[in-house]
Amino acid sequence: xxxxxxxxxxxxxxxxxxxxxxxxxxxxxxxxxxxxxxxxxxxxxxxxxxxxxxxxxxxxxxxxxxxxxxxxxxxxxxxxxxxxxxxxxxxxxxxxxxxxxxxxxxxxxxxxxxxxxxxxxxxxxxxxxxxxxxxxxxxxxxxxxxxxxxxxxxxxxxxxxxxxxxxxxxxxxxxxxxxxxxxxxxxxxxxxxxxxxxxxxxxxxxxxxx
Amino acid sequence: xxxxxxxxxxxxxxxxxxxxxxxxxxxxxxxxxxxxxxxxxxxxxxxxxxxxxxxxxxxxxxxxxxxxxxxxxxxxxxxxxxxxxxxxxxxxxxxxxxxxxxxxxxxxxxxxxxxxxxxxxxxxxxxxxxxxxxxxxxxxxxxxxxxxxxxxxxxxxxxxxxxxxxxxxxxxxxxxxxxxxxxxxxxxxxxxxxxxxxxxxxxxxxxxxxxxxxxxxxxxxxxxxxxxxxxxxxxxxxxxxxxxxxxxxxxxxxxxxxxxxxxxxxxxxxxxxxxxxxxxxxxxx
Lengths: 210, 285
Description:
A: Jelly Rolls; seven-stranded antiparallel sheet; B: mainly alpha; 0% strand
């Protein structure tokens, strides 16, 4: 009976390995990309700029954004899980609440101050999906863990104006990669453990003289 | 214990015959890659296309909207005919070709020499040729859905299984018919071709029944269609897949849909039971 159990377990193991292999193959198929948008601007000192585009907002685990930033000074990049309009509305209401004497135009410019962004980050830490310090060239592929609106925020914490050259490209993959890679590893490990006794038995049988 | 051991012995040997290494592994790989590619193409293949939309509805939609998407993705004729044909063919090959060959060449006598009642021998054979394939098909598809939308699957696992059940009663009915034909003719070729014909002609039969319902303004053809393919009943309940003028004729309640799933399986098990009876009492070898 024992060999039958080995055969059965070995077969289950080889099926798991085959599934893992197939999933691994699906994971390595490169992401398809949409048109690249290349905004360029000069960021004023101690200000922030929200940026979003319907091509990648909302994003999901299969559909994300490839961003690359080139700057001549250090910048702080945030990816926030919110709509850019909501972010602007929140910033405006925060400014109006804290500086009621400002007129509409002044209030608008005040929303771009770093202190407003800091207040947002403190009150909405759950929306911060990426926080990265950048200097020179930097690129990143971002896929959120759930369906969410995406706003890229570029803040200039330095006291000098900084030129920002940003490229954003919507990308999409066949499977949510992060999740699939973990599952592939589990499948491989389980498959090997289950198939190993059968492989050892087979190799022993082969080694045995006739 | 002795009988269980013998049963396992017959099952293991049937398994070995039905799925020679590495046929099953290749099929599983093709199916895994194929389903992802089909889903990718069917929901739009660009970054700005529908994958995001489906995710969005699944995450933010109402429970009923989520269920409608599950039904439309899993219980439709499209998904049945195009996503599972490999497994369908595998079942038919195992029943008609393997069992048919065993009968034709007299190999079945060796199997019948086991100290086991005929019905248990047939059960072991069916478990290998149908049970394993069904388990694999369900396992792979649920696993793939889990990778794509884990929250939706874990929250609606009962409903997902029910939807698969609705989609899989027809292959079981075809399996029963092919088994019966194989036993009657004691050879697999006729049964295999009939089975393949029945498997793929379901779309035409459904279309005819739905057209008939539209022409006669009667819901009876739709009910017949729902017994043959219970996915129609679930689809009608969630208002998916049928022309509005047709679905106006018949919108079953959820309980009614369950009744039609039950009726579909009752029909399939009745045909299988006929095969069992014939194998046990009438089959002369």
